[in-house]
Write a structure and sequence with these properties.
Length: 107
């Protein structure tokens, strides 16, 4: 299903959202969000060690979206030459379908 910008609830504003660009120093926050978003046994859950290895790779960064100092979700990407690979994207359950990724990427 595709979400258009007119599907974002009226009370969700880009100005409400803080976005932190981080690397390995944000691993614990990204890991906590990752564990909350991917259920055990889903086959999509990474270990803390795996996540840290990815964050240490050259060209890798994470974006953590938060509101009122509460982390809402993250995007994890790797850049090489003129390409970007989205490795993982997750939004905490209470914030899903609220347009968080669209707001933090300005779509």
């Amino acid at each position: 299903m595709t979400m258009r910008t007119d599907d974002v609830p009226d009370d969700v504003k880009p100005s409400d959202l803080m976005v932190l660009k981080t690397g390995i120093e944000g691993a614990d926050i990204v890991f906590a969000l990752h564990q909350a978003c991917f259920p055990p046994g889903s086959g999509e859950r990474w270990s803390h060690t795996d996540l840290c290895e990815v964050l240490r790779m050259p060209g890798t960064l994470a974006l953590i979206a938060s509101r009122d100092d509460q982390p809402l979700g993250y995007g994890l990407a790797r850049f090489a030459a003129d390409e970007c690979e989205l490795l993982s994207l997750a939004v905490a359950d209470p914030q899903r379908r609220s347009g968080v990724p669209m707001l933090w990427w300005g779509i």
